[in-house]
């Protein structure tokens, strides 16, 4: 077996661990998707993985990165969570209500300037702007994307108009709202108010504004991690 191509990860301390080994069914789906991505061309590519909170975006991004690296393509991994506006500025706007989170939490200009535009240019990218946990600014910490690199970015709201035209392939992970809440509570704890009042509200606004599932090139039912089900766009 050929060695994996390199995968460069963000310096963010918010990073989630790599997921456990995939089931055979999940591995086959990821291999098919990786083949579909690679078929887009030999140059630098940008892939977005979107979905509701706790739909499995970050894990899926890690898994897809591994599948792409197994095909010899170097990968850069990033998350939109590392491109939120700094908490020190939160008095300037609302980002804690559902609508405020949707409208104001993310710095899309920084995503374009630090990450997406460089991928289409000299390849010198910052994979993290503001660390969500430490609030340290890493916008000057750059990596060089090889000429055949594939950028895999996970995050909510990835298909908003500010970013949508930059992607070469868009993946939407479909789960029910109730499942999103249950997974979010299991992951984050608490009384569920943040899930219900911020994330669900913001994601409902997103769905009404842009219909992200309709914008996706590939839609996957990720309700069961061991048995993901392609709904649209995956080329077997």
How would you briefly describe this protein structure?
This protein is of the alpha/beta class and 236 residues long.
Structure description:
By secondary structure, this protein is an alpha/beta fold. It has one domain (21-232): 3-Layer(aba) Sandwich (Rossmann fold). It is built from 8 helices and 9 strands. It has helices at 24-38, 57-70, 98-104, 108-119, 161-164, 177-188, 193-210, 212-215; strands at residues 7-8, 45-51, 75-79, 124-126, 142-144, 150-154, 169-174, 218-221, 229-232. Strands 1-3-6-2-7-8-9 form a 7-stranded mixed sheet. The protein has a two-stranded antiparallel sheet with strand order 4-5. The model has no long low-confidence stretch (mean pLDDT 95).
Task: Note the main attributes of this structure.
9 strands, Rossmann fold, 236 residues, alpha/beta, 36% helix
